[in-house]
Amino acid sequence: GGGSLFRVRLPVDNGLAPPPTPSPTRRGRLLVIDDEPLLLELVREMLADRWDVEVAAGGAEALALLDRDRSFDVLVCDLMMPGTDGMAVHAWLVRHEPVLARRMVIATGGAFTDRADRWLRETGLPVIGKPFAAAVLLRTCAQVMAG
């Protein structure tokens, strides 16, 4: 007639709990444009677990790709490349896909012309210096995608 008393002692973590379910976030789609094949592969490997990464070996290849497919969330583009440079890629985007032109990140080794320096200031695009750490690239791309 006095009732019952139960004591249940549960361990905080016995290692058997399922891993937490990740929040449902959409993977971003990234286009990396550079004339250095080794850098393209390195960036693809650095970001492949969080982004769907496409690469283009130079500006001309990037424009050919963008002419067919503009469904990228962020573009990371080398500034100084032979032939079609980052400024030319951006100018094409301004004419054909202005929203994507604002979601461009410039990667540079730091050696650029006065014209390129002026252009960087005028556009206000985010700039990351080469060589860059994966964390810097991830953070910058996430910020650009978030708006």
Question: What does it look like?
Answer:
The chain has 147 residues and is an alpha/beta fold. The chain contains six helices and five strands; from the N terminus they run βαβαβααβαβα. The protein has helices at residues 37-47, 59-68, 86-96, 98-101, 114-123, 134-146; strands at 28-34, 51-57, 74-78, 104-108, 127-129. A five-stranded parallel sheet has the order 2-1-3-4-5, with helices on both faces. α2 runs parallel beside α3 (86-96). The protein is elongated.
Jot down its keywords.
5 strands; alpha/beta; 147 residues; 5-stranded parallel beta sheet; 6 helices
Q: Could you list the spans in which at least 5 consecutive residues all have pLDDT below 50?
A: none
Main β-sheet, in a few words? 5 strands, parallel
Counted beta strands: 5
The strand order across the widest sheet is 2-1-3-4-5
Global shape:
elongated
pLDDT averaged over residues: 88
Number of helices: 6
| Helical amount | 40-55%
